[in-house]
Amino acid sequence: MPIINNSKTDPNKILPMTYTWARQHYKDALANTWMPEEIPMQDDIEQWKSPTALSDEERRLILWNLGFFSTAESLTANNLVLAVYNHVTNPESRQYLLRQAFEEAVHTDTFIYVCDSLGLDPDEIYGMYDHIPSIKEKDEFVVELTKSVDEPNFSTVGTENIQRFLHDLVGFYVIMEGIFFYAGFAMMLALKRQNKMVGTGEQFEFIMRDESLHLAFGVDLINTIKSENPGAWTPEFQAEITGLIEQSVELEKIYARDACPDGIVGISSEQFVNYVEHIADRRLERIDLPKRYHTPNPFPWMSQATDLTKEKNFFETRVTEYQTGSLVWD
């Protein structure tokens, strides 16, 4: 039974299952359950209040990333609930989408928790998308990329409409969740590696683990639609998708340089740029498109940050570790 346009599917009848990968992503997501309030923020609060613990550049970097992610997570949740769920008719895939929607709500709550803990001005944080150009341009790019499925009369019937749906799924999963989030993840985890804002860094680490699962599901969804509708994956359409990913890389590189112009101790802004190119190649490969950049990974430790099987020392980090399975990062 096809994953979209299946009029014979009863969305309430999950057995027998057709796509075991969707069920596995759901189970992996359950294994990574976490709540932001479980992560202590006292050390972060003390560092944030200290006049010397953080440089002005580091404070700016933190604020920018909180500003981008706080609104981007809401945009992601809206796309998921109002559009994607409506057009994926397979029951086990819908079960995962419901779980993902819950995780997006947790992510939104995370930024509320961090802002409250640090005593930040919510108008400043949540208004950054409106007055910082490199944040606004990323948000507007994704809104434009995913507007087809938001149309009330949109249908996935027919090759052209399947292409529009794939176009928007690439925008939603590959670009927004798979590229636009990752320079920010790298910046926040680089600070965490220096024992700066460790609680906030751990929040981002858990969000990144969720996002890697979202990306994995999205890629499987895209590739399944491609395999079931080969007439939609034309050379011309592949070139269009590649071009969109290249545009997203340029926007993320601008953001990386803006948010961290002078780098972090030991890491230059160009290394964040290189990281964006590296992950873009990984995203292209996962939807069967050729690499464009051939840039080595400057941050191998980023892969370790999503290793859900590693054990954490309670006295080094107090995050509850739920995961018992494994996660393939690249």
Task: Compute the number of helices.
Answer: 13
N-to-C SSE string, H for helix and E for strand: HHHHHHHHHHHHH
CATH 4th-level superfamily? Ribonucleotide Reductase, subunit A
Described by strand count, sense and barrel closure, the largest sheet is:
none
Question: Explain this structure to me?
Answer:
With 330 residues, this protein is mostly helical. It has a single domain (41-304), classed as Ribonucleotide Reductase, subunit A (Orthogonal Bundle). It is 65% helix and 0% strand. Helix 1 packs parallel to helix 4 and helix 8 (159-180) runs antiparallel to helix 10. Mean pLDDT is 89; it is low at 308-330.
Architecture blueprint of SSEs:
Layout: H1 20-31, H2 42-49, H3 56-87, H4 91-118, H5 122-126, H6 128-131, H7 133-145, H8 159-180, H9 182-193, H10 198-228, H11 235-259, H12 269-286, H13 301-304
